[in-house]
Amino acid sequence: MIGVGKIKQYTNVLDRPLSKGKQEVSLSAFAFLFSELVQYNQTQVDNIAELERRLEDAGYAVGARVLELLCHREKGNRRETRLLGILSFIHSTVWKVLFGKVADSLEKGTEHEDEYMISEKELLVNRFISIPKDMGAFNCGAFVAGIVKGVLDNAGFPAVVTAHFVPVDGQQRPRTTILIKFAEECYSLNARLALRLPDIHVLDQLKREPEQRKTSKNAKTSNDFTGWVLVRNNVTPLSCST
Questions:
Q1: Phi-psi sector, 231: left (phi>0), alpha (psi -120 to 50), beta
Q2: How does pLDDT run across 21-57, given as a tens digit for each residue?
Q3: Alpha-carbon gap, residue 86 to 112, rounded angstroms
Q4: Which run of H or of E encompasses 237?
Q5: Burial (CB count within 10 angstroms: exposed 0-12, middle 13-18, buried 19+), residue 209
Q6: Structure pTM?
Q7: pLDDT tens column, 121-133
Q8: Cα 72 to Cα 69: distance, rounded to the nearest angstrom
Q9: Structural domains for the chain
């Protein structure tokens, strides 16, 4: 009788809870599907740049849907409103849902204040890819760059996102870096909202924040910057792999 009651309770499919279900898919199945995606688009274009753009467009649609799903499932329909918050969300939550782990590193650029980089030693979409010599500059990471752009754009952080190979000393294969360059208006707004502190005081402030939030009844916990250390003119790890 209890089981029947539960069935009647959710007769309308829209009333049923959003089940997490099984969160893993077969790696071989994904590799086959992604290979077909690349091969099909390769027949529709004349150059590598156009092929990467098509992969980015495919990833963009995935990113938009991932953001909607995770905001509903993990954050109670709340979305990040700070630049560092959305970067941390992508580096940890989004990456773990897509690839089963957090990204290897999240770094801030040295030459431009509006540039950030997410790096992977072996990005899944490049792990089993053998690129012909005549396509030496092709990077399947464009698909993941599209996912990141889809998340950022739909979260209200417009940015140009590109994928690049970066050689690593002592390793045969290069790592993949997703370069994020935020739109000027997006970065300017975040800079005005950000906490202004001298670099020497940033770490101490971040260490005190957890205690301040516990003692303050009005403290907001949706944006937690603990662990972010910004040092000007350096490529500074903002978050590291666990």
A1: beta
A2: 566 778 888 889 999 999 999 999 989 999 999 999 9
A3: 19
A4: strand 237-240
A5: middle
A6: 0.70
A7: 999 998 877 777 7
A8: 5
A9: 33-202 (3.30.1380.20)
